[in-house]
Amino acid sequence: MTRRRSTSPGGAIAAILILVLLIAALIKILPYLLVGAVVAIVAVYGIKSLRESKARRTTIASMESRKNALQMKYADPEIVERLLRGSVWIGQTVEQVQDALGAPAAVDRKCSKEVTREIWKYGRLGRNQYAVRLTIERGQVVGWDSKG
């Protein structure tokens, strides 16, 4: 026996009426939802901009502070500029290397009768692979090898 479902026009009209009321309510609140979304986006963007601005000011102040410290330490503007660029040159002292590049990631020492040779390694690429290897003898750079 098949059951027949009856559809009354009253039920369909009630469903349509509810749908119309929901759409009307949504239309009334839609401008407020849009304004809320815009305000949220502006607030997030503003906070992000403030953070980036503060980070830039801090970085600039830090760079100026570092430059002033190096000028006090070395008194030679050319050396200071080379150190700020992170340059390496033959005859550069160990202290200047550290001021230019920071502490090495690893150091190998090889001792002979005449001299101790150190290999300072920077920029680890893999197992015992580094982007830059500086050769240091008697406290000064005597050579380097760089990859890439």
Highlighted features:
elongated; alpha+beta; 4 strands; 2 domains; 22% strand; 148 residues
Summarize the structure.
With 148 residues, the protein is of the alpha+beta class.
Please report the distance between the alpha carbons of the first and last residues.
83 Å
Radius of gyration, in angstroms, nearest whole number: 35 Å
> Which spans of ≥5 residues are poorly predicted at pLDDT below 50?
none
**Total of domains:** 2
Write up what this structure looks like.
Helix 1 (9-74) packs antiparallel against helix 2 (77-85). Helices cover 56% and strands 22% of the residues. The chain has helices spanning 9-74, 77-85, 94-101; strands at 106-111, 116-126, 129-137, 140-146. The radius of gyration is 35 Å and the shape is elongated. A hairpin with a 2-residue loop joins strand 3 (129-137) and strand 4 (140-146). With 148 residues, the chain is α+β, with helices and mostly antiparallel strands. It has 2 domains: 9-75; 87-146, Beta-lactamase Inhibitory Protein, Chain:B, domain 1 (2-Layer Sandwich), CATH 3.30.1450.10. It contains 3 helices and 4 strands, in the order αααββββ. The mean pLDDT is 83.
Question: Strands, helices and their partners?
Answer:
Blueprint: H1 9-74, H2 77-85, H3 94-101, E1 106-111, E2 116-126, E3 129-137, E4 140-146
Antiparallel strand pairs: 1-2, 2-3, 3-4
Helix pairs in contact: 1-2, 2-3
